[in-house]
Request: fold
Amino acid sequence: MKIKFPLWFYQLASPKWFYEITSKLLPWFTAAAILLLTIGCVWGLVFAPPDYQQGNSFRIIYIHVPSAILAQSCYMLMAVAGAIGLIWKIKMAHIVAKSCAPIGASIAVMALATGAIWGKPTWGAWWVWDARLTAMLILSFLYLGVLALSSAFENETSGDKAAAVLALVGLVNIPIIKYSVEWWNTLHQPATFKVTQKPAMPPEMWIPLLIMVIGFYCFFAAVLMARARIETLEREKRSEWVRNLIKEIE
Amino acid sequence: MSFFFAAIKRDLLLAFRHRNDIVNPLAFFLMVAVLFPLGVSPEAKFLAQVAPGVIWVAALLASLLSVDGIFRTDFDDGSLEQMLVSPQPLVLLVLAKIISHWLISGFCLALMSPLLAMMLFLPQQGLFALVISLLLGTPTLSLIGAIGAGLTVGLRKGGILISLLVLPLYIPVLIFGAGTVQAGTMGMPIGGYLALLGAVLVVSMMLAPFAIVAALKISVRG
Reply:
């Protein structure tokens, strides 16, 4: 069986095409991210009704949940891109995987930090050794490991491949994080969004949250593109098209 | 399969000719366990409470310490390269190396653990749980550690990096392992924990060798 993807999909594997496509896409994603994050923040932090139990302290959900979701998605993308790079030897995939790691690490740290700030008023402690918190902490360690490993190699290609193998091994942690709140009896509340069910919150609370989640994804896409573009230029600096590009600018 | 046993035999022989490599992690295991009564509290009641966790952490660190050497000497003298170009299935060769590594590290740690249990006043009824959990858990540690060792074998400073890569992946084994001993000392059934430890072992035995082979190819060929 042969699956055929549209042409642009194959063209993404070419650094030159990636650079050209993203220079068109980047402004759109940046604009969408700014717009959605502004709407979501103002709606969520100012206009959404306070929680009947937690009062106003629940509002950090508008930062915490999107960053926690994104930290896991970013890991998945990093591992899948790494696998594509390993199997089909596509250099763009490794560039994307490498650009994911620092973004994912900082978002994972943000999820942990906002969680700690939220935990203090609701649980009375900055940190509890709960299954989901621990799994998230492991995720940020995995990001650090991938970052450390890819920079430890002098040879760029070996570093890319090694980081991809490690990212794939660490993939076992993702379902553990996802289902930790269902497998174990934990202090952490269950997932806010589920594909199959309506959220437990009223719409005026979850709509701004959904906007924030989409806004975070747009922000992630924009930052990822920006990083990947720079990485592409750096790796392709000896190629014809990058030289022409620099000549045009000069 | 003869090459499989030949590979195990070769590694065991090499280990017995460098006995330090076997003894050092065991001595380390013992010393880490000594640090806790001296550093935290020598009180028997307190030690009995923390003993399951302390012994498991000590075993984990000792295993981590020895795992760096699993491919190092073979890489340095070029025999690892020969293994990679040999016609034998690499997955089995890697598995043989891990089994021999476990026999000289995890297996010995498990055999030595009753001594540590005495030192830390672990209740008698937890002894069986301790030994059996170490016997089931340490092979997983060797398998996961070998992934880290394979990824870093080509680097000059692999030591600290390997712990950064491997320790997060060790955590589930630590949780289930220490949980087994905890349940055992309280006289509760340990079957569930052992089943989990066994499941983790089976899954990592199926998947880790492939990751290790990929890692070794990257480290040797670039």
Observations:
- The first helix of chain B runs from residue 2 to 17.
